[in-house]
Amino acid sequence: MRKENPMALLPIMIFLILYLGNGIYFEYISPTEGQMGFYVVSVVLAFSIALIVAFLQNRGMSFEEKLHICAGGIGDDNIVTMLFIFLIAGAFSGIAKEAGGASSTANLLLSLIPGRFAIPGLFLIACLISMAMGTSVGTISVLTPIACAVSEDGGIPLAFCVGVVVGGAMFGDNLSFISDTTIAATKTQGVEMKDKFRTNIRAALPAAMVTAVILIIYAATGKGAEIGHFDFNIWQALPYFIVLGMSLLGVHVFAVLLAGCILFGIVGACTGSLTYAGALSSMGNGISGMFETMIVTILVASIASLMRENGGFAAILSLIRKKAGTKRGGMLGIAALTVFMDVATANNTVAIVIAAPIARDISREYGVEPKKTASLLDTCSCIAQGIIPYGAQLLVAANIANVASVSLIPFLIYPFILMVFVAVSIIKG
Question: Which of 100, 106, 250, 296 could form a disulfide with 194 if both were Cys (CB 3.0 to 4.6 A apart)?
Answer without folding.
Answer: 250
